[in-house]
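Subgroup meeting minutes
Present: P.N., E.W., G.H.
Scribe: E.W.

1. P.N. recapped why we're keeping a running log of single-chain structure predictions: easier to compare across weeks, and new members can see raw inputs and outputs side by side.
2. G.H. added today's entry (458 aa).
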Amino acid sequence: MNTPSHADHGSAHADTFVRDHLPPVPLQPDLLLGMPSLRFPARLNCGWELLEGGGSLDRAQRTAVLSPHGVRWTYEQLTAVVARVVHVLTEDMGLVPGNRVLLRGANTPMLAAIWLAVVRAGGVVVATAPTLRAEELAWVIDKARVSHALCESGLRSELESTGRVPRTMFFRGGAGAEGGLERAMADKPDWSLPVDTAATDPCLIAFTSGTAGMPKATVHSHRDVMAACNSFPRHVLRATGDDRFIGTPSLADTYGLGGLLLFPLHIGASTVLLDTSSPRQLARAIGEFRATVCFSGPARYQAICADPTPYDLASLRECVSSGEALPTETRRRWKQRTGNSVIDGLSSAELLHIFVAMRGEEAWSRPGAIGRAVPGYLTAIVDETGRPLPYGQVGALAVKGPTGCRYLDDERQQDTVRNGWTFTGDACWADEYGFLYHHSRTDGPVSGSGLPHGSHAG
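Output recorded in log:
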């Protein structure tokens, strides 16, 4: 079942700023949506689909989100919290579909609920890392024309210093005091209808910075979110509803958003959200919560391997790494300590999540490879004119798939998307089996965690 049908497949956005500032059609990526799992209806709201899509009745009492501060919400409870936030947004804060809502907070169940509520209400999430300072926040607010903000109480000073965003509410962090949002939610209904958004309506603006120049604002739709859920996790990770996810990247980062919120909810699994994520805290939480799937980066995997503390990591069965090179030695030591091989992935904010990946068992026989295209994606190595190059010859990495790059009002779109292909800014070569090998980094997109793809050179 999907969101209610609508005779008019046009946008539900009353505020059309984002749609009006998308790239012109000739500069937009060609999207590959032919696989059965990538065919979506014209009307789609990912905030509804992730919580109440197919099979959701069977998981109402299953655990959805947990935290080290005692929060343990079932899917039914999470859906109720989301509904109350929707009512606050629309009734108290005047949100209309298409408005941009800045989110600022550490990884907590409340931040996850707010993310889902914004897209359910037809808004566009503008998630920001807790580390951003006032000057950086001001730039993001101006670029995205942010109209609303929901901010963790302990992070309010930098946001208030911008002097922007007239409609703002604050919420409790992991162990903080109750905020205005919680008080406003107290008398709201625990049920809400999703806005009948078009599948192509924007729902997320993810900011990333290149190796030089100003940050870029990448725009993704409700369909993009669901396409990401049906790509890497379905064909490479192969998790199930019995898994428990955990990890360290921020929900403001597309790598963290997918791995710690979108992917587990899509399959009815549970996720542990850590508001602090040092290697020691991650390792302890894996044992405490019996986590089975971990999303992190090489530095934390290496740090845990170097720590002689006998952490209980026996529950883990899949571990994913992205954002920088996964050294062979780290892969070997992690396998030795946990018995698990790490899945290495190449991700970017432009493509939303991982589009090139390599399972651990493949890595041992192909040293230096960074992986091959995730099913649903195509990769090509091309010369400066866009012509495909033979195997073994270095050229620019170009990607097509169910997601692609759309910058918000940015002339750099013409450099990143050419003839429908998204150019990642990596120089690579490919072998005859489709495995890619990194050669060098060129100017262009960066990984979903804000790190250059060139760091995958290994």
